[in-house]
Amino acid sequence: MPPRSYVSPARSAAAAETRERVIEAASRTLREGESIARFSLDTVAKAAGVTRLTVYNQFGSRRGLLEAVFDEIARHGGLHQLADAMTMDDPRAALDRMVEIFCAFWSRDSAVGRLHDAMATDPEFAEAVRERNERRRRGVTALIDRIAARQASPQARKDAVDLIFALTSYPTFASLSAAGRSRDEVCRVVQAACRAALQPLTLSNPSS
Amino acid sequence: MPPRSYVSPARSAAAAETRERVIEAASRTLREGESIARFSLDTVAKAAGVTRLTVYNQFGSRRGLLEAVFDEIARHGGLHQLADAMTMDDPRAALDRMVEIFCAFWSRDSAVGRLHDAMATDPEFAEAVRERNERRRRGVTALIDRIAARQASPQARKDAVDLIFALTSYPTFASLSAAGRSRDEVCRVVQAACRAALQPLTLSNPSS
DNA sequence: AATTAGATATACATAATGTATATTCAATCT
DNA sequence: AGATTGAATATACATTATGTATATCTAATT
């Protein structure tokens, strides 16, 4: 008696739809709520018009839901434009563009701020977000390798990568935003700082 | 029948001692615990050898305890050296020193990282920490005012202040540390970035 | 000896995550 | 058409936290 199983177009379509609805409700709740502390699966479920148990069915846990929201935001956040940026002829222009893309990403949906808050209370979720950020680090590394003069030391390259990685992170964006800057103003400041971080890579006199 | 009240040296001394013991236990718990999520007043109370209710008596709430821990760490974190730094003749050297002092502060006690995590879940605690950070911003502002050339625009000054404020923040320190750097290596990178942030203030040609 | 401050004991209210079990209902297969 | 299956629901329960309330205990002061 092997249980006969089947795939149901209508069923899985409906399931995908509720899934979308829950993700939408979750990101809205994150956006409108004043703190991640108030973000409960109860709230989300009610906002989506489903039961809390349905959320567990779809995402397994609070963490699963948060990851799904993060991925959804990333999908619609314009990060796909990075591919084009990376192929630009001038790697410095590419870096400028990269900063622009990430500033747009961090500012597009305020839910990303709340998701970064969630990293504080859930180490595994934090790890998942960090892994997703590693793509940014790899992008920066690739650009630095193109920008750096041949005689630039590995240490100087790593310094530049780590610094630019920090400068393009969400916390830096949030700090500059909190100082009362528009997205474009933040972008301008970060771009300038990143350009400055390149200086040690091009000067033929590496301090010694 | 006004209740006669009195101050009791032995009483308040004993109270102060338990208070210290609880703060010590709390910071130890923060230091050793792997996440702020696991930080409960139950744990702290047991570690301090008191009841959870005693913690409420002394600090009023979880937030009150966290603030007390933060202030205790700040008291022994070497921030008093900032006064000397600010009076240095060379404001650039003072800035270097300031970075040094804050790198030492952020790295001295790993509990500060957990306290920053706590900001994510408690908006009022976050506000309290932000207020304490404003002293750093004022220090940076004072130095920038001394460093900036007379013709430097207010905008350029604000850019430098906000950027250096972000560069000397805990999140930046944590990001650079996570990249596998020692405290001194982080300090060196941040100092270089801060010096670079001063460039636009001294060049007599402000881009136009 | 009465009183008082600080700590304790016990109990309770509330909210959140997560698990377990049985059930409803519409879509799919034979 | 009737049996079966997947998704969602209903209900219940265990666990862990914060925070409040009330009464009691004990040692320091008056």
From TrEMBL, chains A, B:
Protein name, UniProt field: TetR family transcriptional regulator
Q: What InterPro entries has UniProt attached to this entry?
A: Homeodomain-like_sf (IPR009057), HTH-type_TetR-like_transc_reg (IPR050109), HTH_TetR (IPR001647)
Q: Which SUPFAM superfamilies match?
A: Homeodomain-like
Keyword terms, alphabetized: DNA-binding, Transcription, Transcription regulation
Organism whose genome encodes this protein = Bradyrhizobium macuxiense
Q: Which domain of life is it from?
A: Bacteria
| PANTHER family reported for this sequence | HTH-TYPE TRANSCRIPTIONAL REGULATOR RUTR (PTHR30055), TRANSCRIPTIONAL REGULATORY PROTEIN (PTHR30055:SF151)
DNA-binding positions are 40-59
The HTH tetR-type domain sits at 16-77
Q: Which GO terms describe its molecular function?
A: DNA-binding transcription factor activity; transcription cis-regulatory region binding
